[in-house]
Amino acid sequence: MTSSANPATPTLPYETASWGRRVLALFIDWLASSLVASIFLGVRALPFGSLLAGVDPRPTDNLWILVVFIVQTAVFTTLGGGSFGKLVTRLRTVRVSPGEPDVRPLDPLRSIARQILVVLVIPPLIFRPDRRGLHDLAAGTATVTLQTYRHVFRRVG
């Protein structure tokens, strides 16, 4: 990034996670959310569940899976530093602030807002050279590998 960068969005002194691991984490989160939703909705909530069971899906099934996805990812991010899928793929969601790395966990409101932006699809697809999408910029976050997290953020805390 050049020296004309906007000071409101600082250049990161560490590398963010690769797209492949982020997409894998998203897939794992969606599958986990479908499994949890299937407890309440039955087999229809599973990927291709309606087709396999020979039943018609209800229009609200996908909405409930989406709600479970938002809640699951926001709760795991607040309590564990990343969604279930991110924890499995050894990624962490961290706060971004000017100066020293911010080791505080994300607050619930920031986590929920970030996940709502993720499910809107477009914000993650518009990103900066440091691989932070609009959802990260709006929430003041970045996704890093566990190795980067341990090296940068544990050293500060």
Brief synopsis:
By secondary structure, the chain is mostly helical. It contains eight helices and two strands; from the N terminus they run H-H-H-H-E-H-H-H-E-H.
Topology, element by element:
Blueprint: H1 19-41, H2 49-53, H3 61-80, H4 84-88, E1 91-95, H5 108-119, H6 122-125, H7 134-139, E2 141-145, H8 146-156
Antiparallel strand pairs: 1-2
Helix pairs in contact: 1-3, 3-5
Q: What's the total number of strands?
A: 2
- In DSSP terms (H or I, runs of 4 or more residues), the helix count works out at 8
Strand content: 5-15%
The overall pLDDT, averaged over residues, is 84
Radius of gyration: 17 Å
The CA-CA distance between the termini, in Å, is 27 Å
Coarse morphology: elongated
| Main sheet strand line-up | 1-2
Task: Enumerate the spans where pLDDT stays under 50 for 5 or more consecutive residues.
Answer: 1-5
- Listing every helix as H and every strand as E from the N terminus to the C terminus, the arrangement reads HHHHEHHHEH
- How much helical structure, as a percent, in the residues? 40-55%
Largest sheet: 2 strands, antiparallel
Content-based structural category: mainly alpha
Notable traits:
157 residues; two-stranded antiparallel sheet; 8 helices; 2 strands; elongated; disordered N terminus
What does this structure look like?
- The chain is elongated and about 55 Å long.
- The protein is mainly α and 157 residues long.
- It has a two-stranded antiparallel sheet with strand order 1-2.
- It contains eight helices and two strands, in the order H-H-H-H-E-H-H-H-E-H.
- Helix content is 55%, strand content 6%.
- The longest helix is centred in the N-terminal third of the chain and has 23 residues.
